[in-house]
Amino acid sequence: MARVLENSVDEKINSLLDKLVDPKTKSKEYAQVMYALGNELGLLLLQKIDASKDKIALASTVEDADFLGKGIIDVLEQNGKKVLLTVFWNKRFKPNEENNITVAPIIKEFHDEGYRNVDTLIIIKSIISNSCVVRTNLTKLIEEVNSGQIFIAAPVLLRGAINNLEGEFDDEIVKRFDYLYFAEDDKKNKDGFVDPGIGGDVYKRLGFESQNKKNRFIPQIVRERRYNQLKIN
Amino acid sequence: MITLELLENVFEENGPKYFEYLSNKNRGGTNNQKGNTFENFFTLYKIAEAFNKNIDPENILFSSQTFCFVDDLVIEQTKGKIHRFYQIKDVANLEWNNRPGHSIKEDFISQREIYLSIGIDPYLRLVVSNKDVYDHLISSIDEDIRDFIQVVNFETATSLNNLIRKNDSLRKELFKMCALNNPSADKLNTLGAILLGAWDSTDKRAISLKDLLDIGYRQNPHYIKGSFAKISGKLEGIFKDVDGFSYELEAGFLKWSFKNTDEGVLQYRIGSFEFEQWENDVFNAIIKTFEDLELFLAS
């Protein structure tokens, strides 16, 4: 079975998803497409978040922060929500090939002040495949953040990813989860990337080359928010 | 390990029959031993426990599916003088006399008899994941085995991440073994996966704690508690000059924070080759502010 699109996907969103898949899309345009998809996810989130809940924590990986993450945040903030950002620098690796366990410890993290006390938690990722990074970051935030609703948002996910993720948490936590995505794919290519997914390795598509280079990157949104926060304090 | 000769010494003419039984049992047990099995989870717990008890890492050996009656995990210590045998069961129902002729009870009795014959009083444990099974086994244990077999309840889970969250015994041992004070779940999960991976990468035959730690140390980050607690004066000087930056050395790892916005743990163990390379990269850079330094903190 090929890609399955969600009902919310219109021509515009479909065309953005196609651009991600297109190998001719250069890094700069790819990042802009991610930002635009972030805007679209932001609009969906606005419909789902309880109107009386204004304080939101949004957690992103470093590679998604300036693009997908900022796209969502801009829409939410333009509509009166207060979004407190967390950014995680994960190192994803398999300690051993034989048992297939993947881990993604958090090497570095940035937080806006007050992120622990919010109404709503949003975890975003450009794609959810084996859900290792999302699971890691979500586990960390569930330990720290006192929120009600938890949204997990990604433009694309691999079929089965939701079940995998939910299998890692107790029912009491799982019932707080709500998912937002546009497309669901059901296979991976020979290199292990979801096909068509988001067009392969997101680090490379965004121009980071490798995981190590990605982890040396400091998103502009982090620089700005840190600067503003330190100025206030 | 049990030999035909030993079986014949103890069971006389029935020795070959027991030998054939053990051969079949051993063949069945070695199948499907990789990954998230209950046996591996329990072994992970015992590995962490051994580390935390400061047992000489060269003097404790772990084996699985050895040629024994009680064979899921065997831990040998003090050059063969202490033997701990574990039968590990992740089942919904279990009886002491489950298979007449080759029941769990008889396996434990045979294991004891064999080891007593060579002057070793073995430590014998039946480990079960299910609390109801545990309660049933405790209430139905026969008088004749009560003194030398203990039943242990060790909760299992569908994944390592879940296991660490749910199983307090394992979580406590990983907590103690982790280099960081108050480690978050991602650090415990990484440490657990590294130890499990190390165990899975061996043939599970007389593997020392040292062997397992050596495999674990090859990963970055590994978060295994170490003792190297100093950084060079030059690096200290660089850190000191960065306004708002602070750090602590926690059992071999460098945990840092910047004001109240950023924090992290350097992935390389202090004193390791990788740490020295990283330090060298820092020395070759011009670092005046946190923004100069942070480029190196997650790489």
Q: What's the overall geometry of chain B?
A: elongated
Secondary-structure-based class of chain A equals: alpha/beta
> Tally the helices of chain B: what do you get?
13
Structural class of chain B: alpha+beta
- How is the CATH topology of chain A named? Rossmann fold
Distance between the termini of chain B: 47 Å
The run of helices and strands of chain A is: EHHEHEEEEHEEHHEEEEHHH
Percentage of β-strand residues of chain A:
15-25%
Count of discrete structural domains of chain B: 2
The proportion of strand residues of chain B reads 15-25%
* Radius of gyration of CA atoms of chain B, rounded to a whole number: 24 Å
Q: Main β-sheet of chain B, in a few words?
A: 6 strands, mixed
Number of helices of chain A: 9
Largest sheet of chain A: 6 strands, mixed
Radius of gyration of chain A: 17 Å
Low-confidence stretches of chain B: none
Describe this structure in words.
Chain A is an alpha/beta fold and 233 residues long. Chain A has a single domain, classed as Rossmann fold (3-Layer(aba) Sandwich), CATH 3.40.50. Chain A contains nine helices and twelve strands. Chain A has helices spanning 11-21, 27-48, 62-78, 132-144, 161-166, 171-174, 202-205, 211-214, 220-232; strands at 4-5, 55-61, 82-90, 106-111, 120-124, 127-128, 149-153, 156-158, 177-180, 183-185, 187-188, 194-195. Chain A has a six-stranded mixed sheet with strand order 4-3-2-5-7-9, sandwiched between helices. A four-stranded mixed sheet of chain A has the order 1-10-8-6, with no helix packed on it. A two-stranded antiparallel sheet of chain A has the order 11-12. In chain A, helix 1 runs antiparallel to helix 2. The longest helix of chain A is centred in the first third of the chain and has 22 residues, at 27-48. The radius of gyration of chain A is 17 Å and the shape is globular. Chain A starts with a strand and ends with a helix. Chain B is of the alpha+beta class and 299 residues long. Chain B folds into two domains: 4-217, no CATH class; 233-297, no CATH class. Helix content of chain B is 45%, strand content 15%. Chain B contains 13 helices and nine strands. Chain B has helices at 4-11, 15-29, 38-52, 104-117, 131-139, 143-146, 160-166, 168-177, 185-200, 209-217, 233-241, 273-283, 290-297; strands at 60-63, 73-77, 82-89, 123-128, 149-153, 207-208, 245-250, 253-258, 262-265. In chain B, strands 5-4-3-2-1-6 form a six-stranded mixed sheet. In chain B, a hairpin with a 3-residue loop joins strand 8 (253-258) and strand 9 (262-265). In chain B, helix 1 (4-11) packs across helix 2 (15-29). The longest helix of chain B is centred in the middle third of the chain and has 16 residues, at 185-200. Chain B is elongated. The interface between A and B is large, with 40 and 44 residues.
